[in-house]
């Protein structure tokens, strides 16, 4: 489910982005970073200015400042995510390892993405009571998916389940954005993260 066709994620090829973040001494994978940014944006966090980068730094870079080039890369990625989530054709997709990568590695990427999405989402949304029933159910499902320990016995069934889960997460992220992220339009301030 990675767009390599020349779409907006093309410049953020999973492998190249992973390599880039490794060079920046960032321990999080491209899937985890995409998940955090997606969760923040879907939950209504602002990505205007530089303040949100301090929060991302706490989450993925042990509070250390990002180099200027890395800041620009993260801003670009956040803008691509926001634009894709606003796309009326539902052009948003998860940034995960390529489909030709062994399934267990893709599942690791998937679990990392959903765990990170929940962290990013929780930055702005700490009270579930105000959410619609559909969104509460989607978040509960994400929590369960994040806990899964995938056992790959039947490769064909596991492949099918993988793609169904990816699609479910994609639609759930869009549901979050449509209910919460659209309100902020990038203007709100993120809550402080409690460690």
TrEMBL record:
GO cellular component, one term: cytosol
Gene3D superfamilies in UniProt: YgfB uncharacterised protein family UPF0149, PF03695 (1.20.120.740)
Pfam families for this protein: UPF0149
Alphabetized InterPro entries for the sequence: YgfB-like, YgfB-like_sf
Superkingdom of this protein's organism: Bacteria
Family affiliation: Belongs to the UPF0149 family.
Family matches, as PANTHER family: UPF0149 PROTEIN YGFB
Name of protein: YecA family protein
Species assigned in the record: Pseudidiomarina taiwanensis
Taxonomic placement: Bacteria, Pseudomonadati, Pseudomonadota, Gammaproteobacteria, Alteromonadales
